[in-house]
């Protein structure tokens, strides 16, 4: 690795020191349904978001709640400290399309209609609140 590339990598690593990430892949629900829940918690403090997700009627909320708990745990593991109320917030949450299962449904007169069973990937970033103000 060249010196300039190494310095750039170290700077990038230092910038992401307080940020933790968690990914949930191949969730068997459509990205559109998952984005409704993701938009609900984007930018919210983590413990408030856990409450919102726990009492939400959406089925996708359970998956994102599990992912958020994982991200909090990752942050605690990385920083060797317990997360306190008001300390962390959801910096970014993205929902991307995953591979689609394609099926055929019988239709009249010997035809077949396509069924696309969609799935998605969710990536969640957790950061400390004081970094946002600094």
Structure description:
The structure is a single chain. The chain has one domain: Ribosomal protein L22/L17 (Ribosomal Protein L22, Chain A, Alpha-Beta Complex). Helices cover 43% and strands 29% of the residues. The chain contains five helices and five strands. It has helices at residues 3-15, 31-41, 46-54, 60-79, 129-133; strands spanning 20-27, 88-97, 101-106, 112-117, 120-128. The protein has a three-stranded antiparallel sheet with strand order 1-5-2. Helix 3 (46-54) packs antiparallel against helix 4 (60-79). It is flat, with a radius of gyration of 19 Å.
SSE layout:
Layout: H1 3-15, E1 20-27, H2 31-41, H3 46-54, H4 60-79, E2 88-97, E3 101-106, E4 112-117, E5 120-128, H5 129-133
Antiparallel strand pairs: 1-5, 2-5, 3-4
Helix and strand content put the structural class at alpha+beta
Instruction: For the record, give the distance between the C-alpha atoms at the N and C termini, rounded to a whole number.
Output: 32 Å
Number of helices: 5
Give the overall shape: flat
CATH architecture: Alpha-Beta Complex
Oligomer description: single chain
- Which strand order spans the largest sheet, edge to edge or round the barrel? 1-5-2
Helix content: 40-55%
Largest β sheet strand count, sense and barrel closure = 3 strands, antiparallel
Number of separate domains: 1
Find the CATH superfamily: Ribosomal protein L22/L17
The first-level CATH class name: Alpha Beta
Question: How much of the polypeptide forms β-strand, as a percent range?
Answer: 25-35%
